[in-house]
Amino acid sequence: MGHAAVMTDSPAGPRIAAVVALLAMVPVGFFYVASGLLVPGPWLFLLWVVFLVLVSVGVRLFRRRSYLVLAVPVVAAVVWFGTLTAGEAWLGWTG
Q: Does any domain span residue 3?
């Protein structure tokens, strides 16, 4: 028996999930790039590194043929929103 998150029935399923996740990462990536309007330099660099790490995680999940790849854009969006919200609240970032 395989792990529930790993697809072994159809080779197309994980590919479709990866395409959906990739398409969802495009608008999320736009928000990461546009964050330079609000986020100061060093924090912006760190935010971009986090985005690249999440893309790397997505690629690894795709290689494992895991449907968990669909969670990557969601996590990326939550991290972006949480970072900007915390920065505004605690660090005084303003647009």
A: no
The answer to whether 63 and 14 have CB atoms below 8 angstroms apart is no
Cβ–Cβ < 8 Å for 30, 76: no
Domain hosting 52: range is 12-90
Task: Choose among 4, 3, 5, 1: nearest CA to 62.
Answer: 5
Only one residue has tokens 């399923």, namely 13
Per-residue pLDDT reduced to its tens digit, 67-80: 999 999 999 999 99
Residue 5 lies in a domain: no
Tally of domains within the chain: 1
32 part of a folded domain: yes
Distance CA 9, CA 30 (A): 34
CB 93 within 8 A of CB 38: yes
